[in-house]
Amino acid sequence: MISFDNMIAGRLPYGGIEPARFDGELSDRFRDAFNAVEARAAQGSSGFRELPRDRALAKRTLKLAETLKGRFDDLVVIGIGGSALGTIALRDALLHPGWNELDRRDRAGRPRLHLMDNPDPDTVSSLLGRLDPGRTLFNVVSKSGGTAETMALFLVVWDRLTGSLGPGRACDHVVVTTDARRGALREVAESRRLRSLPIPESVGGRFSVLSPVGMLPAALTGIDTGAVLAGADGCLRRCGSAELQENPAGVLATLLHAADVDGGAPIQVFMPYADRLRGFAYWVQQLWAESLAKAVGTDGEPAMTGPTPLPAFGAADQHSILQLLMEGPRDKA
Q1: How far apart are CA 266 and CA 258, in angstroms?
Q2: What is the pTM of this model?
Q3: Helices then strands (H, E): number in the chain?
């Protein structure tokens, strides 16, 4: 359910969307957009929508997780952008808030979870210095297989592992998640005989959390991946209607699109009040920005368009940015 009373004209001291538009122009606008998206999906451009029902890939991921179960005290995911933000969102939402501070018994033998994305030498060396190489698993994640930051971090980690364990044992401490056939990381995985899992070709990196990108770390740390995938499938079904009032995702998209193109509010604020949704807000920021910012329009003409997502966190940001949001320029939704 989405509550949008505060975006309706009459509830706001200024502007707002006229209720009659929902049964008329906005419904027609959404129906056209929905049908265009469905047509693209039919051509195979939205592979992420198939992930909740890809039982073979889910089974393969769980099988590897079971093989690695109990062997490691720490799991380090090396990735950036879509190769990390979805996993961070899952970690924050579904693991114990103090997961890495729990002892091994309270974690039921599952590993601590670390994300290594920004190649800052101080942060990286500090983390690696705290870990026992012989009890640490590194999951290197890149859809393209050539992400510069990820590959640089992998080289640092590989040097540390081989220096401590030797090349043979080092291979047992790395899992690669990348494109099934292409990219430098795929070549590295095959040449060094590293364990690996595929990201389907039709799945873009920022949409890959329901692939092994997110499901392997989730399974290793004890998150019920079956429930996650079932929930995602349920959301797909709920959002499968071209009728605006029956589609919660459609309502959200339509409201924010109208705020941007009709209401002069191109800044869209995502402000969860639950700490568990902090990672989700940053993930939404990436999904929004990378999906909707376009230099060229669908007609091939220059566009330079896209709403600006702004993550914030209540109640802390009520005491930092809220005054700007409430009393500043009327350019935010």
Answers
A1: 9
A2: 0.94
A3: 12, 9
